[in-house]
Amino acid sequence: MRSLTCIVCPIGCALSVEGEAEVALSISGNRCPRGAVYAQEEVRAPKRVVTGTCGIASPVLDGGPRRVPVKTLQACPREQINELLADIYKTRVLLPVKAGDAVITDWKGSGINVVAVRSLG
Questions:
Q1: Residues sharing a CB contact under 8 Å with residue 23, sequence separation 6 or more, in sequence order
Q2: What is residue 78's three-state secondary structure?
Q3: Which of 37, 74, 104, 121 could form a disulfide with 114 if both were Cys (CB 3.0 to 4.6 A apart)?
Q4: What does the DSSP 8-state code read for residue 110?
Q5: Are 116 and 69 in contact (CB under 8 A)?
Q6: What would the DSSP string read from start to end of 28-85?
Q7: Do 65 and 80 lie in a common domain?
Q8: What is the CATH number of the domain that holds 109?
Q9: What pTM, to 2 d.p., does this model score?
Q10: Is the domain of 52 the same as that of 40?
């Protein structure tokens, strides 16, 4: 048996999952259907929203920030997170940039978009 805490809504149900990823799962403890969907995805194909920072391509004046905080709009499969982070860290952003501006679009054809979370410049 595996124990999880649901993160879909603020309730944070304590979920119990019995079974293996390849076979039918028995899920209990969820107060809504979203908890069961979350538990199935977490066991079978876990994904995470990824956050990081990109460098700034233009010279930084007056000791301002040297990096732009970014995040993915879609969850990334856990086994691809390190590869995505490497690409995020290699990316250089031209200023000015607004929160929500695309930094990486459709990363490697996966549909994952990376956006700035802070306006700079």
A1: none
A2: helix
A3: 104
A4: S
A5: yes
A6: ES-SSHHHHHHHHHHHHS-EE--EEEEEESSPPPTT--SEEEEEESS-EEGGGHHHHH
A7: yes
A8: 3.10.530.10
A9: 0.80
A10: no
Confidence of residue 109 (pLDDT cuts 50, 70, 90): very high
115: exposed, middle or buried (C-beta count within 10 Å: 0-12, 13-18, 19+)? middle
- The range of the structural domain enclosing residue 15 comes to 2-45
52, 68: one domain: yes
Whether residue 96 is preceded by a cis peptide bond, meaning omega within 30 degrees of 0, is yes
Tokens 């691809």 found at: 80
**pLDDT 10s digits, 9-29:** 899 999 999 887 667 688 999
Same domain? 62 vs 40: no
Question: Looking at the structure, do residues 28 and 76 belong to the same domain, yes or no?
Answer: no
